[in-house]
Design a protein that fits this description.
Helix content: 40-55%
Number of domains: 2
Distance between the termini: 47 Å
Largest sheet: 10 strands, mixed
CATH architecture of the largest domain: Alpha-Beta Complex
CATH class of the largest domain: Alpha Beta
Shape: globular
Length: 324
């Protein structure tokens, strides 16, 4: 039986029992085996521990609930291998995920981030996604940034295996949700080497209990935050900067169209970077402030034709890639 000491598959979990066993079994069923660990974020039951004992998987348990993304960081910290693949406890890996990763590393030993294409698992079965991201070897992840600007932010972090010494996410010290994984990727992409595998080696499960669905509004706010505070700083093209600023405004209006007053107040009171960013934007932009005072259902109706025009423009007049 082939075994690699280069990679650990780490599975963070909290409370939800459904899908966990399938995730563990997919990690154990690799054509080339590797270390598998589970990091329990202080669940109220012992289901995860008993499952790990039965499967021979190393089990860790936090003394308190430290939050979603800090628990991902804990996965990186507890792993002992050079690379770590964090597998969400409701997702699945194809049997050749590890094998495909090792083939990429053999061709390009300097890879910092390996990621693959993926399939969506829904209640209706397997579905293809519409996300666009670059594939192949990239000495620096400039294309990751370019695709995020030209299309939309869609890097498949959930499929990624990352070099452990570079993988710690910069998170706020609270339990508030948000796209800290994307913040890390787009902040560091131009300093990291990537390999995007065209193989669909990851299965992303979509269901009502997804963390991103439960905390959808903070995730929506992540997009304009990344555009304005991270990607704008990386651009030198003035025309592209103006277009990106317009995208920021549109994304904030989209946020308003989907968020209730209570949800927006909760974000702004959270004292994390996304809430502080929104407060600052509203204080500096009178038009935005007025818009955010309107009922979100009214904004939702008004924004529909704008979304249609924006969709048509992206296909007829796509944003040019960043100039080297």
């Amino acid at each position: 039986m082939s075994f690699t000491k280069l990679l650990t598959i780490a599975i963070p979990c909290y409370e939800r029992k459904e899908y966990f066993l399938e995730a563990v079994e997919s990690a154990l069923a690799q054509t080339i085996k590797c270390e598998v660990i589970v990091v329990d974020n202080c669940s109220s039951h012992d289901f995860f521990e008993k499952t790990c004992i039965g499967k021979g998987v190393t089990y860790f348990r936090n003394e308190t609930n430290i939050g979603l993304f800090p628990n991902q960081n804990k996965c990186y910290a507890l792993a002992k291998t050079e690379y770590v693949k964090v597998l969400d406890s409701d997702d699945l890996l194809s049997p050749i995920y590890v094998e495909s990763f090792l083939k990429a590393i053999e061709l390009h030993p300097d890879i910092d981030v390996y990621y693959s294409d993926f399939i969506e698992l829904t209640s209706y079965g397997e579905c293809s996604h519409k996300d666009k991201f670059p594939l192949g070897y990239m000495e620096k992840g400039i294309k990751i940034i370019e695709y995020g600007i030209k299309y939309r932010l869609a890097f498949p972090y959930m499929t990624s295996t990352i070099k452990r010494i570079k993988a710690q996410l910069d998170v706020d010290i609270n339990l508030c949700a948000g796209g800290y994984d994307w913040v890390w990727i787009y902040s560091n992409a131009d300093q990291l080497s990537f390999y995007g595998d065209s193989g669909k080696h990851h299965q992303l499960r979509l269901h009502t209990d997804n963390s991103s669905k439960k905390d959808w509004i903070p995730y929506l706010l992540t997009t304009p935050y990344i555009y304005e505070t991270i990607l704008l700083e990386k651009l030198s093209n003035s025309k592209l900067k103006k277009k990106l600023k317009r995208k920021v405004f549109f994304e904030l209006i989209n946020l308003k169209s989907q968020a209730t007053k209570g949800e927006l107040i909760a974000i702004m009171n959270s004292e994390n970077r996304f809430g502080k960013y929104l407060i600052d934007k509203l204080n500096r932009n009178v038009l935005l402030m007025i818009t955010f005072k309107l009922p979100y259902l009214f904004i939702r109706i008004v924004i529909l034709p704008i979304k249609l025009i924006n969709w048509l423009c992206r296909r007829i007049f796509p944003i040019r890639l960043m100039q080297n």
